[in-house]
Structures are given as structure tokens and as C-alpha cells.
Fold:
Amino acid sequence: MHITNGQSPSDQNGMRAVKSLVVKRSIVVAGHKTSVSLEDAFWTGLKEIAGGHHLTLSDMVAAIDAERQHGNLSSAIRLFVLDFYRRQLSELKAAAPAAHVGRSVAAFS
Structure:
């Protein structure tokens, strides 16, 4: 990898390297200190969801931890946040007139 013109690093084929934006964060869950590694977008989403449910971040993470079937806690949090926003989108689509949804989807194609 090398730096050219002050831009982000590139590999030998000139492809830009993507820097991981995963940040390790400490949190107390059910009275035990643990850490999770999450991208800022997932951390922000988790905080928004917890606030919307009038829960502390620790309580929200404890609930996710208690419900997870497998995988690590960081993955379980990512899947929880993704599922939450997917459900919101599904509810919006169900409430919107069919013609409006068709135009919205076309904009992302």
C-alpha cells in the first residue's frame, strides 16, 4: 500500500483501501463490563433505538444479549439495528399508496 498526493492509501493495482471504521466501546451489561466493536452508524442507531424506547444503552444491549441465539454480541447488535430499521421501512411501505412506493423504489434503481 502507498500514499499518493495526500489521498487515502492504494494497493498495487491502484484500488483505494477502505479504512475500517469499527470502534471498540466499553459498556456495562447486566452488571458486567464488556466491549463491543461497532461502526459509528450502528452505535448511533443503537442509541436512537434505546432512546426511543426510553431505555439506557446498557439495558438495550442486555436485552439484545439475552435474546441472541449465536454469534458474538457485536454481530447481534448489528443485526438488531438492521432488523429494527428494516421493520420501520416495511411499515412505511405498507402504509404508503402503491404508486408512491413504486416511484420511491425506482429512485434507488
